[in-house]
Design goal:
This protein is an alpha/beta fold. The chain contains 7 helices and 15 strands. The chain has 2 domains: 127 residues, Response regulator (Rossmann fold, 3-Layer(aba) Sandwich), CATH 3.40.50; 101 residues, LytTr DNA-binding domain (OB fold (Dihydrolipoamide Acetyltransferase, E2P), Beta Barrel), CATH 2.40.50.1020. A 5-stranded parallel sheet has the order 2-1-3-4-5, sandwiched between helices. Strands 10-9-8-12-11 form a 5-stranded antiparallel sheet. Strands 13-14-15 form a 3-stranded antiparallel sheet, with no helix packed on it.
């Protein structure tokens, strides 16, 4: 079931987005939940309701959309849900960077824009289930891309880092890069990083959500900057 939340204190906006999504709901395996306050949305997520996509208004009356997004990412540690901010203003880009939104829509928006964002979220959610396979001794392992923070090259071996584990196996980073396609960002001859776990970017390094800092090599700086800017170009 693909679950969507729409949070806006203007009920007409909520109903408009829901009506745009109605054709998908009729196909089944798809549902839309309406919230008219940030508090209500946060309470639902805190209680265990899991959403694949959230359309979140920034200018909510009490708890702002930015505050809700920060709580979802930082307090509830939910990195999987795709957040799309909606607003009548356009000057929020820097505030939203740390929340890693999928998109930013300005009011009024069109049905085409909503559907494009929805389909992008659905593609990414499917892609999130892709796994990386590797072998340690005689045992084969599979780990979802969405759980891998980064790969590190160590001599003839690769170190795969998740939030709490490290796996060491024989291989070359170039082979890993080819196998994973565009899911990971090459920042150094020794590092491939999952962009969803990058909390902060600087000219010579990136900071991950777990406070780990990884270097950006001089040869990769231009490419890293371009790819990260492209990732956030919709803001």
């Amino acid at each position: 079931m693909f679950c969507v939340a729409v949070c806006d204190d203007e009920k007409t906006v909520c109903q408009q987005i829901k009506s745009f999504l109605e054709p998908y709901c009729k196909k089944g395996e798809f549902e839309v939940h309406i919230f008219t306050s940030g508090e209500a949305l946060y309470e639902a997520v805190s209680a265990g309701t899991r959403f694949d996509l959230i359309f979140l208004d920034i200018e909510l009356k009490l708890m702002s959309g930015v505050a809700v997004g920060q709580k979802i990412r930082e307090e509830l540690c939910d990195e999987e849900v795709h957040i799309v901010f909606i607003s009548g203003k356009t000057e929020y880009a820097m505030e939203l960077f740390a929340i890693r939104p999928l998109h930013f829509l300005t009011k009024p928006f069109t049905r085409k824009q909503i559907i494009e964002v929805l389909e992008k979220a659905m593609r990414l959610s499917i892609r999130y289930q892709d796994t990386f396979e590797f072998k340690i001794d005689q045992t084969y392992h599979k780990i979802r891309y969405g759980e891998i923070w980064y790969f590190e090259s160590k001599a003839r071996k690769i170190s795969l880092h998740t939030e709490n584990e490290e796996y060491l196996f024989y291989g070359k980073l170039n082979q890993v890069e080819d196998a994973t396609g565009h899911h990971f960002l090459r920042i150094h001859q020794s590092y491939l990083v999952n962009p969803q776990f990058i909390a902060c970017y600087e000219y010579h390094q990136v900071h991950l959500l777990n406070s780990r800092t990884l270097p950006i090599s001089e040869s990769c700086r231009k490419q890293v900057k371009q790819q990260l800017l492209r990732k956030w170009s919709d803001l």
